[in-house]
Design goal:
The protein has helices spanning 28-36, 40-50, 55-67, 87-100, 129-132, 148-164, 181-185, 199-205, 208-213, 226-241, 266-282, 285-311, 316-328, 334-348, and strands at 18-20, 24-26, 75-81, 105-111, 137-143, 169-173, 190-195, 216-219, 254-257. It is α/β, with parallel strands linked by helices. It folds into two domains: 70-283, Rossmann fold (3-Layer(aba) Sandwich); 289-348, no CATH class. The strands form two sheets. A seven-stranded parallel sheet has the order 5-4-6-3-7-8-9, with helices on both faces. It is globular.
Length: 349
């Protein structure tokens, strides 16, 4: 029986075939057929390829992507917010609302691994129970690794796989701590920022860069005694958003409020998102946006490929350790040292 919530896999998966608990083998044809038929278990296994660092898995992923034809009319929406804002509750409410409209919704939860301990923030805990049991929804928590290149690679390819499986709404959730938002912004069309009532304190807790890329702000938990605070915050956020430069799309960021727990304000925020797509399709910016997404990812992949190539060169670790020792004692400059190391690795090896 298929399940919508697929657990995060290990990056060390079988390079030849994918297995489901060592029972079922997934050949390349089985993967492609399963994705086309919207088999959520197979889709989860295919997404495992995007998270693997094995060359064999990357090659298999490319074969799958070349054969499949992702939808060009899907809507890619990024959702972020500070911890405790109620992202899971909001996404579940929005997802349930959209599936009732006849939409198929995929949720990709991007979780940059901790650089200090290597652990993930979202973890493997089951969230969004109602949505995970919804036959028209697919939820996938995933760790991206320690670099933003990992976010770009795994998330973008996961989006394409979900689109190929027939999902027309892709919700990309980030943890709201500034590690992945910039990378995800180049993969989504619309960026929604969730905030709490009490604008003064919250504005200090969110990074300016995240506020600047937001296309809309939704003030969650606007219920009970928080309702008046949410209305007040709504006005303050509108003033704040006007301080940022105008967006190239011609879109003016909107602010709304509601309670995901009580399922209020969900229709209104979707109407806002809908109006964004109506505007950008009408003025032609949507095609420009998708083109810019591809260009940004192209240069991200170049950076990642060069980094991987150089790190595999002989004596790389030895040179790095020597430079780190000099940096520790103040005998070297990080910028100059990095440039010299790259030139040495490219020219000598």
């Amino acid at each position: 029986m298929n399940i919508a919530l697929d657990k995060k896999p290990s990056s060390k998966i079988n390079p030849k075939v994918l297995t489901d608990n060592n029972k079922k083998t997934y050949s390349l044809n089985n993967l492609i057929k399963g994705i086309k038929n919207n088999d959520r278990t197979v889709l989860g296994k295919a997404i495992s390829l995007t998270e693997s660092s094995l060359p064999e898995d990357e090659a298999r992923l490319q074969e799958v992507l070349k054969t499949l034809k992702p939808s060009s009319v899907s809507r890619r929406i990024g959702i972020t917010g500070i911890p405790g804002v109620g992202k899971s509750t909001f996404i579940e409410a929005l997802g349930q609302y959209l599936t009732k409209l006849g939409k198929k919704v995929a949720v990709l939860a991007v979780d940059p691994s901790s650089e200090q301990f290597g652990g993930s923030i979202l973890g493997d805990k089951t969230r969004m129970e109602k949505l995970s049991n919804n036959p028209n929804a697919f939820i996938r928590p995933t760790a991206s690794g320690k670099v933003l290149g990992g976010v770009a690679k795994s998330t973008y390819h996961s989006i394409l796989l979900c689109e190929a499986a027939g999902y027309d709404i892709i919700l990309v959730e980030t943890v709201g701590v500034g590690q992945a938002e910039a990378a995800v912004r180049h993969m989504v069309d619309f960026f929604l920022l969730l905030m709490l009532p009490g604008a003064g304190d919250e504005l200090q807790g969110i990074k300016r860069g995240i506020m600047e890329i937001a296309d809309a702000v939704f003030i969650n938990k606007a219920d009970g005694q928080n309702l008046n605070k949410a209305k007040e915050a709504c006005g303050q956020y509108k003033q704040t958003l006007h301080l940022f430069p105008n967006k190239a799309s011609g879109w003016i960021p909107k602010v709304s409020y509601g309670s995901a727990k009580e399922e209020t304000g969900i229709k209104e925020v979707w109407d806002i998102i809908d109006s964004f797509y109506e505007l950008t399709n009408k003025n032609g910016y949507f095609k420009t946006l998708r083109s810019e997404q591809i260009n940004a990812l192209f240069f991200t992949y170049i950076d990642q490929a060069l980094r991987n190539l150089i790190s595999q060169k002989p004596m790389f670790k030895k040179h790095v350790n020597e430079i780190l020792a000099k940096l520790k004692t103040g005998k070297a400059d990080p910028y100059i040292s990095a440039g010299e190391l790259v030139k040495k690795m490219i020219n000598k090896y």
